[in-house]
Amino acid sequence: MALAFQPKLFVRNEAFFARSSISSKPRRLQVLAFAVKRSPKRLKYATPRFTKEGELLFVEVDPFGADSWKLDPVVDLLKEGAVGVIPTDTVYALVCDLRNPSAIERLRRIKDIEPQKPLSILCHSFRDIDKYTTGFPRGDGQGHANIFRAVKHCLPGPYTFILTASKELPKQCIRYGSKTAKYASRKNVGIRMPDDEICQAILEKMDAPLISTSVKSLKENEWMLDPVAIADSYGPEGLDFVVDGGLRVADPSTVVDMTVIPPKIIRQGKGPKLPWMVAEDYDESAEDVNSSSSV
């Protein structure tokens, strides 16, 4: 059954504004009108907050990226602070702009993520990884002189690598807690470079990584693989858009802890075990918080 709010996209930006019920006023005027209500002392430092107008935007895109121009309105929304769902090379991901603290807060509220759960980041290139982490280890003590060279052969791909975070990473990723509790610092973060045309097109247009977490049922701890069902479930929670890249299978990324030597698999997923990785028995009841939110 088709959703009532599912538009047949696209005739560029004019059609986008009409179908998503966003005001016809220029965006620059919208931001200005909102900024006037804020404290002048904070305007210099604060990022724009997203004000949702109309219903959820549902965008159908060719899985092979042939019509990636349809993603332009989605990128515009992300830059304004929207929270939405996009496909990856494994399962669907709930995402927002890494540079927007208020968007990260909204993402946590929409999925009702526990304060102690860290968030992962989706990267377009190794440049992003080098900026927001301290990078990959150069050896593992087991005869592999350069793990970075080995990693380059499996990225982009279905792996989440846990690395030491750099000071560039927002506090919402490397710290957790609440406004009433003192933040505790987390030095590690999960990074992904998905091998998916739609995801990579969005990341390239953003020119910055996206904060991400897996999309699971709000009632059951199961992956949600149908974008229409995701829109039905998360739309009422305040989700702003869904990018439909087709159905996915319940096969999340393989999570590898790169902060230990040799690198250790803490969740076996779609990515195969490679010779320079070691495996450990996976216990779902003791699931590592770094792997539980990874797509």
Percentage of residues in helical conformation: 25-40%
Q: Report the principal-axis shape.
A: globular
The total strand number stands at: 13
Work out the strand percent.
Answer: 15-25%
Strand arrangement, major sheet: 1-10-2-3-9-4-8-5-11-12-13
Radius of gyration: 19 Å
Poorly predicted sequence stretches spanning 5 or more consecutive residues: 1-49, 176-185, 283-289
Q: Give the mean pLDDT.
A: 77
How many DSSP H or I helices? Answer: 10
What order do the helices and strands come in, and which of them pair?
Layout: H1 12-19, H2 27-35, E1 57-60, H3 72-80, E2 84-86, E3 93-97, H4 101-111, E4 120-122, H5 126-132, H6 147-151, E5 159-164, H7 171-174, E6 175-176, E7 184-185, E8 188-192, H8 197-206, E9 210-214, H9 227-234, E10 241-244, E11 254-257, E12 264-267, E13 278-279, H10 289-292
Parallel strand pairs: 1-10, 2-10, 4-8, 5-11, 12-13
Antiparallel strand pairs: 2-3, 3-9, 4-9, 5-8, 6-7, 11-12
